[in-house]
Amino acid sequence: MVLLDFLCYAFIAVVFIQVVYYLFIFGNFAFLKQKKPSSKNIPVSVIICAKNEAENLKNFLPSIINQDYPEFEIVLINDDSNDDTLEIIEEFAQAHHIIKIVNVKNVEAFWGNKKYALTLGIKASKYDYLLFSDADCQPVSNTWIKEMSAHFSNKKSIVLGYGGYAKVKHSFLNKLIRFETVMTAVQYFSFAKMGMPYMGVGRNLAYTKNEFFNANGFIKHIKVRSGDDDLFINEVANSKNTAISFSSGSFTSSIPETRFKAWIKQKRRHVSTAKLYKPKHKMLLGLFYLSNVLFWIMALILLAITYNWMLVLGLFLLRISIQYLIIGFSSKKLKELDILLLLPVLEITLIISQFVIFINNLISKPDFWK
Fold first, then answer.
1. Per-residue pLDDT for 109 more than 70?
2. Measured between alpha carbons, how far is 182 from 163 in angstroms, rounded to an integer?
3. What is the dihedral of CA 232, 233, 234, 237, to 10 degrees?
4. Which of 120, 113, 65, 111 lies closest to 88 in space, CA to CA?
5. Which residues have CB under 8 Å from 316's CB, separation 6+?
6. Three-class secondary structure of residue 51 per DSSP
7. 320 pLDDT higher than 70
8. Minimal CA–CA distance to 78: which of 136, 123, 135?
9. How far is CA 64 from the centre of its chain?
10. Rounded CA gap, 29 and 255, in Å?
11. Given this model, what pLDDT does residue 368 score?
12. How far apart are CA 111 and CA 358, in angstroms?
């Protein structure tokens, strides 16, 4: 009985932690109204690093070329591709003067390192404001550059955007991928709004050249092959220099994985960099994940044995209701409302998947950058 009493009290504490996270941290984004900044029309360099992306460039590059923006260039980086990527880039460059080609050959010191290729692309760009995306990614509107760059100011030198994934009908994996993407966005948008920015996604991210060179580029984590987006932002972002953009026209959309094994492999690369975040960020993110795991384990145990079941059920429903409220408002902003129907199932599946990824990363190092 003493053990069950302890478990019940622990469950109350876990629910309290979860409620604090959802209402007082994630609520910063859920209830936030996007203020529409005035268009700056500052010259922008759009930087895209491509490795074996010939088909994706054919499909998605026109959506960037046709952006409604007065002055921009597209810096296309061919990172030692062994398909027709370079040829496709050259064809586009011949037809469009705004395209600049950076052809990267691997060197022994930076073999297969995307950060090396990106550094060369950034150095080759002619404008001070840089907007990043991926070759398998496309803006959802022709005002993407306008809406992202509008958040730059004398104080704001970093803009965090939302990079979603295309919807696939009748696919549980697709909903899981998009749920994980929404949860990640809710976290980095919310912490940024609180003055504690800790990451961004390379599918939709902007910062100034000065920010990059003042930090000596990726030098502090150049040997870590992933993390050109989140590790760099974790290093340089602060409460004063970071803005967020979540107007629907500023979104990008990427091709989602269609096989669970491929998605796990992709997430292993992404998760591997989190251990290098600043201690305060690791603590806050770790506490949320741990409280999430304990919430479901304790709730299921206590409800299964019907111990103090009315209190446990009440707390369970309170936390679920608050989660639906916060994720509901957030997913509406991010145009991902369809994930709500399976929210508890998606959350449990994601928790298990993240645990599998954690164990796999302990056993072996993940692959990097194709």
1. no
2. 9
3. 130
4. 65
5. 15, 299, 303
6. coil
7. yes
8. 135
9. 20
10. 25
11. 53
12. 26
Give the gyration radius of the chain's Cα atoms.
Answer: 22
> Among residues 69, 59, 64, 60, which one has the least CA distance to residue 47?
64
Sheet holding 163-165, edge to edge: 137-139, 252-254, 163-165
Count the helices and strands in the chain (H runs, E runs).
Answer: 13, 10
Q: Which residues contact 169 (CB under 8 A, 6 or more apart)?
A: none
- Domains of the chain in sequence order: 2-29+280-361 (no CATH), 36-270 (3.90.550.10)
Q: With beta carbons less than 8 A apart as the criterion, state whether 245 and 153 touch.
A: no
356 is written with which tokens?
Answer: 């599998």
**Token pair belonging to 166:** 């295309």
Q: Could you tell me which residues are beta bridge partners of residue 131?
A: 46, 206
Q: What is the pLDDT of residues 192-229, one digit of tens each?
A: 999 999 999 999 999 999 999 999 999 999 888 788 99
Q: How many CB atoms lie within 10 A of CB 213?
A: 11
Q: Are 296 and 290 in contact (CB under 8 A)?
A: no
Q: Compute the average pLDDT of residues 75-82.
A: 94
> What pLDDT is attached to residue 37?
85
Q: What is the mean pLDDT of residues 135-151?
A: 97
Whether residue 92 contacts residue 142, with contact meaning beta carbons closer than 8 Å, is answered with no
Write the CB contacts of 341 (distance below 8 Å, at least 6 apart in sequence): none
Q: How far is CA 9 from the centre of its chain?
A: 35
Find, among 254, 249, 246, the residue nearest to 168 by Cα.
254
State mean pLDDT over 220-248: 94
